[in-house]
Amino acid sequence: MFSSTITDFWSAPFAGGEVLRNDPNFILAINPELDDDRRVTVLETTAGVTSAALTPALAEKLELREQAELSAASFRQLLRQNQVLLHEADYLFYFPAAAQEALREEPAADRVRQLTEQDSAVFAEFQASATEQDLDDAYVELDHWAVFGSFDGERLVSASSMYPWENAPVADLGVLTLPEFRGKGHARGVVRAICSYATSRGYEPQYRCQLDNHASQALAIASGLARFGSWEVISPDSTN
Fold it and tell me: Which GO molecular function annotations are given, in alphabetical order (predicted)?
């Protein structure tokens, strides 16, 4: 369903280093290439496979090699027992491989266009009309790698921005629509336009949202994305 770019990208953290378990439903690996702020990373795909990777230092603290036959559930229990806290999970959405060619060829809606620094005034007005919480959650910025907006007349009412992950084939996006303009197709238009831009430049658009954000999940599906799985990393509040 998904391109090999995505499947290869997400298999890499759990296939390198020392693989302790490789069962049909649970993969556990020690990966020295993980950054410290991702010293635990856990991926659960929609196919029901849970993959986990840890740095060697954390694996040693947890005495991971001495543990009995761990399952996904007992691994999570081991983390909790050792006060290793995971950040709240994000759902990951990508375009199915079969949908990407049509996406690249799709023209943007009439009211949607790419934004540049010349749009700083309308973008500032847009930000001023949004709540601080919405701005923090969406993380839409005019100086990101790509920015698209949807207009109601001359007013910017929805915007999406995107930035490529470092040394990765994916480009992460955020989207924000002013409350009074939601449900009118603006967000879907900017998401598809910015994702078309990214795929035409060799990136896989990546849409993330928290598990309890049902409106964001609905937007992803309405935009043609499909859920790949859920992803967790170490919490900044973790003591280990």
Answer: acyltransferase activity, transferring groups other than amino-acyl groups
Query: In this structure, are 33 and 81 located in the same domain?
Result: yes
Q: Would you say residue 38 lies in a domain?
A: yes
Domain containing 165: what range? Answer: 96-224
Q: What pLDDT, in 10s, does the model give residues 118-140?
A: 999 999 999 999 999 999 999 99
Model pLDDT for residues 60-95, shown as the tens digit of each residue: 999 998 887 899 999 999 999 999 999 999 999 999
Q: How far is CA 213 from the centre of its chain?
A: 13
Residue 239 covered by a domain: no
Residue ending a domain, among 64, 91, 118, is 91
Pull the structure tokens for residue 125.
Answer: 């007005």
Residue type, 167: N
Q: Kindly state whether residue 18 falls inside one of the protein's structural domains.
A: yes
**Cβ contacts of 141 within 8 Å, gap of 6 or more:** 147, 161
DSSP 79-146: HHHTT-PBPPPEEEEE--GGGHHHHHHPPPPTTEEE--GGGHHHHHHHHHTS-HHHHHHH---TTSSE
> Using an 8 Å Cβ cutoff, are 71 and 78 in contact?
no
Residues 103 and 215 grouped into a single domain? yes
The span from the CA of 30 to the CA of 26, in Å, is 14
CA-CA distances (angstroms) from residue 173 to 15, 57, 60, 155, 207?
27, 32, 36, 22, 6
